[in-house]
Amino acid sequence: MALQHAASGELIPLKRGDDDIAHFTSVALAKTAHMELIRLVLPKDRDMPVHKVDGEITLLCLQGEIVCDAHGKSVLLRPGEMLYLLGGVPHGLRANDDAVALLTILLT
């Protein structure tokens, strides 16, 4: 079954359900030709290995703590804090606590 993305003007819930962490439920919320929005769920101590994407990204921490390794340093994100990365920058993520973030990718 294809994932249904939100339509323009549609409410998008960002809070996670009680079983999201256990099932690593990251969800693509909306996607257009120019942008993708993802609710990223990272369980505690689970790493997202170093990778890169072509487009610029923002990562807004909603719950928990997320460490982003990029540009030769580690940045700790707490709820309400946001990180911006240029496209093509290698980065890895890990969660110090069960975490939820809003990831925006500008598609090239």
From TrEMBL:
Domain Cupin type-2: from-to ranges: 42-102
Xref: InterPro entries: Cupin_2, RmlC-like_jellyroll, RmlC_Cupin_sf
Superkingdom of source: Bacteria
Name this protein carries in UniProt: Cupin type-2 domain-containing protein
